[in-house]
Amino acid sequence: MGPSSCLLLILIPLLQLINPGSTQCSLDSIMDKKIKDVLNSLEYSPSPISKKLSCASVKSQGRLSSCPAGMAVTGCACGYGCGSWDVQLEPTCHCQCSVVDWTTARCCHLT
């Protein structure tokens, strides 16, 4: 067996090791291309009706302040530094401190 035969016997297994890797890479690249094609074919079309958030503050004397019909409470503030409040029956801010001179409800709706 000559040196060229030995070289071929060594190169053939090496070429077989390289080939599956290149096949996998080409499969990966094909899948990447397919995924990109599908994603590019999807069209984002925002809703023709654009909504805007509209908010207002409603201040009342005492421990309760209610939002107008159609608006939702998004936050409350209470007088005398009271930081304890909750929302009652959806449109009403309720300050929980015993002494409160005013309550403000932050009311919002989509227009």
Give your account of this protein's structure.
The chain is of the alpha+beta class and 111 residues long. The chain has a domain of 58 residues: Sandwich (Immunoglobulin-like), CATH 2.60.40.4230. 35% of the residues lie in helices and 32% in strands. The chain contains one helix and six strands; from the N terminus they run αββββββ. A three-stranded antiparallel beta sheet has the order 1-6-3, with no helix packed on it. It has a three-stranded antiparallel beta sheet with strand order 2-5-4, with no helix packed on it. Strand 4 and strand 5 form a beta hairpin. The longest helix is centred in the N-terminal third of the chain and has 39 residues. The radius of gyration is 35 Å and the shape is elongated. Belongs to the resistin/FIZZ family. Its main location: secreted. Keywords: Disulfide bond, Hormone, Secreted, Signal.
Instruction: Determine the N-to-C terminus distance.
Output: 88 Å
| Binned strand content | 25-35%
**Strand element count:** 6
Oligomer: single chain
Lateral strand order in the biggest sheet: 1-6-3
For the biggest sheet, the summary is: 3 strands, antiparallel
> In CATH terms, what is the architecture of the domain at 53-110?
Sandwich
- Structure class: alpha+beta
Mean pLDDT: 79
Give a summary of the structure in a few sentences.
This protein is of the alpha+beta class and 111 residues long.
